[in-house]
Design goal:
- With 109 residues, this protein is mainly alpha-helical.
- Helices cover 72% and strands 0% of the residues.
- It has helices spanning 6-31, 36-43, 45-59, 68-97.
- The longest helix has 30 residues, at 68-97.
């Protein structure tokens, strides 16, 4: 556990808790009607797993027996980036379909 300083641990743990709370909040938004929030909450899970891998790796002082966690962290980061990209697309797509076909011309006096 000596791999990181106390302030760095505080940042790591608070970031994980903040991410978890954001997921829970988005899930609650999804329960209120707009199902796209469920998708965003689920899309955030791989990044949370990645963060937990990093914290676990550092907690055990970067022991070589746990090097597979580094690979898992990198993989879940990659997957998380793609899932968040897809979730962002799901939010953007309906907005782009509702764009007006032409810009209204203001009336002249």
């Amino acid at each position: 556990m000596h791999a990181l300083s106390l302030p760095t641990w505080v940042i790591h743990i608070s970031s994980v808790l903040e991410w978890l709370l954001a997921i829970l909040y988005l899930w609650r938004l999804g329960e209120q009607g707009d199902r796209r929030w469920f998708g965003l909450a689920v899309a955030m899970l791989p990044a949370l797993i990645s963060a937990l891998c990093a914290c676990t790796w550092h907690y055990y002082d970067n022991t070589p027996k746990l090097e597979w966690l580094v690979t898992l962290q990198a993989s879940t980061t990659l997957v998380g980036n793609f899932t968040l990209m897809l979730a962002a697309y799901w939010f953007w797509r309906p907005a782009s379909k509702q764009a007006p076909a032409s810009t209204p011309v203001p009336k002249q006096r």
